[in-house]
C-alpha cells in the first residue's frame, strides 16, 4: 500500500512539473473549423444581417453568421508583480460587428466566399466573390492536437477582404 501511495505521489508531482523543464504541455483546448466575420465599424450601421456562401471543391454551402457588437480588451493592469497577484481587463465596444460560425469540412485551402448583406431598411446587396485561404490554427502550438482550419473575413463598404 505504501508503495502504491508513493508511486501515485511521484506521478502527481511529475504532472505538476514546470513548463520550462521540458517540452511544452498540451491542454485540452481545441479549435473549431469555421469562418469568422468582422464588419468594419464604418460599415456596421448599414448592416442588419449577413449571410455568407462558402465554396470549395465545386460545392457551395450557405453559412449563417450571427453578429454581435465587437469589443476591444483594455488592460487594467495587475495588482502585483508576484505570480499570486491578479490582473484584470475590461471589454470596450469598438463599433464593429463580429461573428463566428462552425463550418464542418472546411478545408485548409482556398475558399470562395460571397456575402449577402441585409440592410436596416430590408434591402439586400451581394458582394463580389472573394477567394481567400483557410489556415490551420493551433491553440496550443503545432506540436499539440486540436488544430482546425479557419477563415477570417472582413466586410466593409467595398466588399469582403481577408482578415
Task: List the topology elements.
Elements: H1 2-15, E1 34-39, E2 49-56, E3 59-65, E4 68-78, E5 87-102, E6 110-118, E7 124-126, E8 130-133, E9 135-137, E10 148-156, E11 159-162
Index terms:
163 residues; mainly beta; five-stranded antiparallel sheet; 11 strands; flat; disordered N terminus; signal; Secreted protein
Give your account of this protein's structure.
The protein is mainly beta. It has one domain (34-162). Helix content is 9%, strand content 49%. The chain is built from one helix and eleven strands, in the order αβββββββββββ. The chain has one helix at residues 2-15, and strands spanning 34-39, 49-56, 59-65, 68-78, 87-102, 110-118, 124-126, 130-133, 135-137, 148-156, 159-162. The strands form two sheets. Strands 1, 4, 5, 9, 10 and 11 form a six-stranded mixed sheet that branches. Strands 2, 3, 6, 7 and 8 form a five-stranded antiparallel sheet that branches. It is flat. 16% of the residues are buried. The model is unreliable at 1-21 (pLDDT under 50). This is Secreted protein. Keywords: Signal. Residues 1-16 form the signal peptide.
Largest sheet: 6 strands, mixed
Residue fraction in strands: over 45%
Mean model confidence by pLDDT: 87
Structural class: mainly beta
Give the CA-based shape.
Answer: flat
Evaluate the radius of gyration: 22 Å
Helices and strands, in N-to-C order? HEEEEEEEEEEE
In whole angstroms, how far apart are the ends?
A: 58 Å
Helical content stands at under 10%
Number of helices, where a helix is a run of at least 4 consecutive DSSP H or I residues: 1
Instruction: Work out the number of β strands.
Output: 11
Unreliable residue stretches: 1-21
Count of separate structural domains: 1
Amino acid at each position: 500500500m505504501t508503495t502504491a501511495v508513493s508511486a501515485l505521489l511521484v506521478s502527481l508531482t511529475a504532472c505538476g512539473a514546470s513548463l520550462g523543464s521540458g517540452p511544452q504541455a498540451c491542454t485540452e483546448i481545441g479549435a473549431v473549423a469555421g469562418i469568422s466575420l468582422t464588419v468594419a465599424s464604418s460599415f456596421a450601421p448599414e448592416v442588419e444581417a449577413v449571410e455568407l456562401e462558402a465554396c470549395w471543391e465545386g460545392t457551395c454551402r450557405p453559412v449563417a453568421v450571427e453578429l454581435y457588437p465587437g469589443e476591444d480588451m483594455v488592460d487594467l493592469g495587475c495588482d502585483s508583480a508576484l505570480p499570486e497577484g491578479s490582473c484584470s481587463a475590461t471589454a470596450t465596444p469598438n463599433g464593429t460587428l463580429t461573428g463566428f460560425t462552425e463550418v464542418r469540412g472546411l478545408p485548409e485551402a482556398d475558399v470562395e466566399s460571397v456575402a449577402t448583406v441585409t440592410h436596416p431598411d430590408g434591402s439586400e446587396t451581394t458582394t463580389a466573390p472573394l477567394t481567400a485561404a483557410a489556415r490551420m490554427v493551433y491553440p496550443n502550438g503545432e506540436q499539440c492536437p486540436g488544430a482546425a482550419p479557419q477563415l477570417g473575413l472582413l466586410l466593409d463598404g467595398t466588399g469582403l477582404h481577408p482578415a
